Every structure is written in C-alpha cells, then in structure tokens.
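User: Structure with histidyl-adenosine monophosphate, tokens only please.
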Amino acid sequence: MPYTIPKGTHDISGDEAFCYREIEELLQTLAHNYGYMEMRTPIFEQTELFTRSVGESSDVVRKEMYTFEDKGGRSMTLRPELTAGIMRSIVSNKLYTNPDLPIKSWYLGPIFRYERPQAGRYRQFSQFGIEVVGVDSPYYDAEVIFLGYSALKMLGFGNIELRINSLGDKESRDQYRVALKEYFKDHINEMCEDCQKRYEINPLRILDCKVPEDQEIAKNAPVLRDYLSSSAKEYFQFILNILDNYEIPYVVDDNLVRGLDYYSQVVFEFHYTSNNGKYLGAVGAGGHYDNLLAEVGGPKLSGVGLAFGIERIYNLLKEDGILDNKLENFDLTIMPLSDNCLPVAFDLAVFLRGSGYRVDIAYNVKSMKQQFKRAERKLSPLAIIVGEDELDNNQIIIRDLNQKTQINVNINEVLTVIDNIFNGHENEHQCCCHEHEDECHEHNGHHCCSKHHHEEE
Ligand code: HAM
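Assistant:
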C-alpha cells in the first residue's frame, strides 16, 4: 500500500524548490547586509520553554504543539516558532556577555503547528526570521520593520499592508486587562469556551477570537490605545515617525494583539492580497519583547524580531506570476553519440563541472533528436556533442542551441571557448592548486585543476 504524505505537510521539488531557495537566499543576503549572524537551534526543545515563553494562553501552546515524551521520560516539543529557541540559545551560550550588544541573529528552518490545514496554513512550514536582543532602542524596532518591508519589496510584492499597534509596557497592559475584564464580565458566559478560558488567563487574547458572535461582542470593548502610558505612547510615536520619514505605509490597528504572549510595546504584521484576490493571512509578523530573555533564564534584556512564512511568500509570488520565469537551467548539456564516446564525455563532464559549470549528461545514449529535446527541457544554452568522427581528430562540437550555430573545437580548447562564450572575453586563469599552477583554470570563482587535459596538450 502506498504511503501518503502527512496531512498539512507538502513536498517541494524541482523548480518549486529552486524558487524557495531564491526566496531564502534573498532574505539571508539582506539580513547579512544588515549585520545579522546566522543561528541554528534544535528542531525540538523542552516543552516548558514554549509554555513559559509563547504562553499558556496562546492557541499555539494550548492546542497546536507536537509534544512527545522522549525515551528518558522528558517532555519535548517540536518547535512551534523559533524566537523562544533563539532566546534559549542566547542564554545557554551566554551570548549576552558579548561586548557588542545587541545580538543580531537570523534563522531559517521548519516549524510545526498542529493547525487545521487550509490555504496558506500548514502543519510543517518554514520560517525565516530575525531577532535583535540586548539594546532597548526604538531605532531597532524601526530597523526590523524596515528590513521586513524592504525584503517584501525586493521579493516583488506590490501593495504590502503593514498593520501596526502598540501593546504598551506592562503597566499599560495591566490596566487594560482590568478594563477588559470589567467589559467582558457581563458577556463572558455567552462567549465560546476558548474565550472563557482566555478571560481567566489573558483577556487580551479574546480580541484574537475568530468566532463571529464573539467578535461582535468584542467590537465595543475598550481599546488599548487609551490605556497606554505616556512613555509607551512616545515610544510608539517615535517608530511611526521613522516609518513616515521613510515613506513606509502602515495602518494602526487597535485590535492587533498577536497570538503569542511574549510581546510588549510595538507589534506588527505584513499582509498581502494577490492581484486575483488571494489572501493567506499574514506573510510575516513580529514585535518587541521586554521579558522574554529573562523568562527563559537570562538577564533582563529586551528584544525585537519578526518572522516570515516562506510558504505564504512563495504561494503569493507564484499566484502573481512573479516566479514564472524562475527556472533552474543547466549551462551545458554534453551529448555522447555512442557508447564509445562515453569515456571522453564523462571526462569532459568531470572537467567542466570542476571548472564551475552546471553540466547535464545522460549516460544511457539516446538518439541525437532525443538528446536535443532533453537539452531543451534542461534549458541549456549550449550543447557539447561528442561524436566518434570528431574524436578521431581530437575534436568535439559546441552547438549554440538558441542561435542554432555550431563550431568544431579542439578538445583541449573546450574550456577556453566556453569561457569566452559565457563571459565574452578570455578568462584569466588563476590557480588554487600550487602543485601545477599553470595547469589550472578559474571560472566564476571556482578553481579547477585540469592537469589531465594539460597533459594531452
Ligand atoms: P507568527 O505570527 O506566529 O509569529 O508566525 C510568523 C509567520 O509564520 C506568519 O506571519 C505566517 O506567515 C507564518 N505562519 C504561521 N503559521 C503558519 C502556518 N500554519 N502555515 C504556514 N505559515 C504560517 C512568530 O512565529 C513569531 N516567532 C515572530 C516573531 C519573531 N516575533 C518576534 N520575533
């Protein structure tokens, strides 16, 4: 019986995987340019890390975690987000002792949430994120939002909707909680079971409820803005001013409270609707946190971060046709015309791959016509035809598959000719291999020792 893929997961291959890689590389390069370093943390952590940091009142902890007992009887959980793991790693490795705070990290990897699968919602998905930890300055909040916005622009998104709100400091939120409890106390018995629990643990979470009847009740609830302390208001306004100065459009959304418990001060989400009206929820989101590092056992240092959902980015870019011409192509297809040509074809493939070219070759020799069809599918601009007649004269044929022109080339000149075609000029050959320096070639930064071919010269 064939196995089926687990619900809420998906396989990625070929051009799709290529596009994922392009998206991820763009995000990594941008974070690198902003001075972030990569951090890799385990896919599973102690369950308590998440219950304490993400919070007992969040849906993620209450309903969505993949928790299991390991063979030593410890409760472990597949990470339902990466921020908590990054904090744990900062504490475990005492990264906060670095004299050059803040710690600026980027990360990429799989996340697991037992959610109801639907468009844009998976049980295993990938997040790319950044965290800045150790220095409290609204400039860092602005920088993180700025990076997020720039990333989406560079990926090709048009009208990004940035929703932003302030949850204020602890004092503001404590007062707001009291006001919310007062407001909901006469309604809570008619509200859903989840809201009744939220009322006890964290009434702010009620504003996140998706049940229409409950949303109707929540409509007239007091708004957090009215409970912000003057310093929290100032902090928020400072960030908004920077966004204004750099013409980053945003909407202040009073109901934006975010689904994870660790936030304070500024929170934000990036939303996008495709040209055909496809909407998958937030493509990325984040915010500021004052107590998260302390919560997981570190010093009381604040931080700010965001995470993008790679699947949502991919699905929306695909929907808008922005990824349509992103196909992974080969530089060269080598075409051996008979079994007798295979040793030379094999040797050429080894040599040219070593010189930095992406080379396709099939060793189950097919007709010329079939090989040209294959080269077309592989999007190779050039073919190297290895035939017995030419080999008798130490030659091969290089065919330009777009122009439909071809030249006979001495086998020892192949790399020079191909370099010329690709680069339009003679490559300067430099060698990384000191043993036989004059026998090595460089292409696209890749070095290769072509001793073997030199010997034939
Ligand atoms: P989050 O809002 O839970 O935040 O997730 C961030 C992004 O992950 C979402 O905006 C969405 O694009 C994607 N995402 C979430 N759930 C799913 C799902 N089931 N399927 C596909 N994509 C999904 C966090 O995780 C925070 N750690 C962000 C953060 C970093 N805050 C501060 N630093």
